[in-house]
Amino acid sequence: MAKVNNNILVYPDPRLRKKAELVDEVNDDIRETLDQMLDIMYKAPGIGLAGPQVNVHKRVVVIDVSEEKDTPLYLINPQILSSSGSEVTEEGCLSVPGISEKVKRAAEVKVRTLNYYGKEIEFDADGLLAVCIQHELDHLDGHLFIDRLSSLKRGRAKKKLEKQTN
Ligand code: NI
After folding, report:
1. Which domain holds residue 99?
2. 161 CA to middle of ligand 1, Å?
């Protein structure tokens, strides 16, 4: 079973850059991993967490964008089937503490994923959920939101991060 790291990995940890592997069976081990990830995310607190951020290099994501933090969404092997529109939103990341910057992403996405029970589902998302899904799916491929900034802003963010860790 993939061991969940209780501490969220922080930039520039190279493990954040590893491409996550497909989950081949949705079983109790994976569900336990998702449960642990959700706990860590709520405690952080955050609205999304991807496997690589807790050193689980599998394509698993937990999200909850609800006010009450009572609507968890579990994504296993998620894919974006199509996207449309564009929106600029201020983003942050538990793995990139202290930095928030505006990022341009699709406004609406159609998602195909396995759910908590291993059933394939499809749904449409917009608003904050659409942003969060795109941000978390980036993590599965080893990408961070700061990669999507202009080189000027990225340089500024990296300098700030270096100062924080030194
Ligand atoms: Ni993130």
Report:
1. 14-165
2. 15
Residue 144 CB contacts under 8 Å (≥ 6 apart), including other chains: 11, 16, 93, 95, 96, 138
- CATH of residue 161's domain is 3.90.45.10
Residues 84-97 pLDDT 10s:
999 999 999 999 99
What's this model's pTM, rounded to 2 decimal places?
A: 0.96
The total of structural domains in the chain comes to 1
Ion ligand 1 nearby residues (CB, 5 A): 93
Give the confidence band of 165 by pLDDT, cuts at 50, 70, 90.
Answer: confident
Ligand 1 centroid, distance to 61 Cα (angstroms): 11
Tell whether 78 is covered by a domain: yes
Q: Which residues are 120's β-sheet partners?
A: 114
